[in-house]
Amino acid sequence: MKKRTPVSEIMTTQVITLHKTDDLEQAEQLFKQHNIRHIPVVSGEAIIGILSYTDLLRISFADAADEYALDVESIVYNMFTIEQVMAKNLVSVSSSTTIKEVAELLATKEFHALPVVDHEKLVGIVTTTDLINYLIRQF
C-alpha cells in the first residue's frame, strides 16, 4: 500500500449533483436511481452544501411502502427546501490529499463523504465505501 497515494485515485469523478432550487422529491429519486447516499449541492461549479440520504430520512418516510406514507412524504418534502436540509459547514479536500489523510478525517468526523474541491471547483467526492473498496483491493 503506497503511503502517498492521492485521493484522486479512488474518488468518484462523475458526481451526481443538485442545485439549491431543486426539490427534495427530485433528490430522493436521484438517491434511489443511482444507489448513492450523498449528493453535493452546487451553485455553478462551486459546492455550497451536501445532502445525505440520512438527512432526507430524518424529515420523511422515504423507506415507507404504503400509499398514505407517500402522500405524507410529498407534503413534508414541500415544507422544506434543499438549502434548509443540506449540511452547509463543509469539510472538503483537494484531489492531491492523500488517502491516509482522507481516512483520518472520515474516522474522526461524523460524516461519511467528503467533497473533493480544486480551485473552488467540485471535482469529485470520496466516501467511506470508496475507502473500504480501496483497502479490499490492497489484499
UniProtKB/TrEMBL annotation:
Coiled coil: none
InterPro entries: CBS_dom (IPR000644), CBS_dom_sf (IPR046342), Diverse_CBS-Domain (IPR051257)
Domain CBS stretches: 11-67, 86-139
Pfam family, one: CBS
Keywords of this entry: CBS domain
Gene3D superfamilies, per the entry: CBS-domain
Domain of life the protein comes from: Bacteria
PANTHER family attached to this UniProt entry: CBS DOMAIN-CONTAINING PROTEIN (PTHR43080:SF2), CBS DOMAIN-CONTAINING PROTEIN CBSX3, MITOCHONDRIAL (PTHR43080)
Protein name: CBS domain protein
Organism of this sequence: Olleya aquimaris
Lineage, opening ranks: Bacteria, Pseudomonadati, Bacteroidota, Flavobacteriia, Flavobacteriales
